[in-house]
Amino acid sequence: MIRRVPDQDSIKTMIQGIDNLIDTAFIQEKLFSELGVAWAQPGKIVSLRDYSTFPATTHS
């Protein structure tokens, strides 16, 4: 599934089938975990009750 190959002065890591998986997830509007991908873990449910603003940071 994962392949590492020399690439100029580095090592390239390639995940077999990831391009098709990303396309499928996009088309079906699903997370990898919802598609049953063995290594994917579902996220935790987060309550948005009483959530009114998104925290912002300022940069000087």
Q: Could you explain how this protein is built, in words?
A:
- The chain has 60 residues and is an alpha+beta fold.
- The chain has a domain of 34 residues.
- The protein is 18% helix and 20% strand.
- The chain contains one helix and two strands; from the N terminus they run ββα.
- A two-stranded antiparallel sheet has the order 1-2.
- β1 and β2 form a beta hairpin.
- The longest helix has 11 residues.
- It is flat.
- It starts with a strand and ends in a 32-residue tail after the last helix.
- The mean pLDDT is 92.
Mean pLDDT over all positions: 92
Strand content: 15-25%
SS-derived structural category: alpha+beta
User: Approximately how much helix is present in the residues?
Assistant: 10-25%
- Outline the low-pLDDT stretches: none
Strand order of the largest sheet: 1-2
Gross morphology is: flat
| Total strands | 2
Radius of gyration: 18 Å
Helix-strand sequence: EEH
Describe the main β-sheet briefly: 2 strands, antiparallel
In whole angstroms, the N-to-C terminal distance is: 45 Å
How many helices in DSSP terms?
1
Provide key terms for this protein.
60 residues, alpha+beta, two-stranded antiparallel sheet, 18% helix
